[in-house]
Amino acid sequence: MAITRFDPFREFMTVQERMNRLFGQAYLRDEELSRAAWVPPVDIYETEQHDLVIKAELPDMAREDIEVTVEHNTLTLKGTKKAPAELKDEQYRRVERQYGAFSRSFSLPNTVDAAKVSAEYKNGVLTVKLPFREEARPRTITVDVAA
């Protein structure tokens, strides 16, 4: 089964485009659509070392514009993606990338050791590693043979 990213505004946009074509005029301009709130896509997986990893796509962002916090078993990613300052609004012909502030929160299982969470930002991808507590990691128990 394929995983499809849910976008609640996709259907609305499709209906709006059809209505615009029907009436022959655009009620929503492209720049108004591009300023809508955005949410960076993430992948969440578990490694063979039994750590959780969250990878978020944050292209064209500076490390200083990204904030990662862990509080009360909740991981929060916040930041602001800024539009290029060297271009003025009237220079654009089309804007499809989204800019502005974002915030995403994830509930963490009790097995995650919040004191050992680490984050790395490289090539536009934020990687947050969430190691499990030692007592939550699988362990091998040796069986003694009684004579």
Instruction: Estimate percent helicity.
Output: 10-25%
Share in β-strands: 25-35%
Please, what is the average pLDDT? 81
Number of helices: 2
The best one-word shape is elongated
Structural class of the helices, strands and pairings? alpha+beta
Order of helices and strands: HHEEEEEEE
Distance between the termini: 52 Å
Major beta-sheet overview:
4 strands, antiparallel
Strand order of the largest sheet: 1-2-7-6
Radius of gyration: 22 Å
Poorly predicted ranges: 25-36
How many strands? 7
Commentary on this structure:
By secondary structure, the chain is α+β, with helices and mostly antiparallel strands. It has helices at 8-23, 30-34; strands at residues 42-46, 51-57, 66-71, 74-81, 100-107, 118-122, 125-131. The strands form two sheets. A four-stranded antiparallel beta sheet has the order 1-2-7-6, with no helix packed on it. The protein has a three-stranded antiparallel beta sheet with strand order 3-4-5, with no helix packed on it.
Topology:
Blueprint: H1 8-23, H2 30-34, E1 42-46, E2 51-57, E3 66-71, E4 74-81, E5 100-107, E6 118-122, E7 125-131
Antiparallel strand pairs: 1-2, 2-7, 3-4, 4-5, 6-7
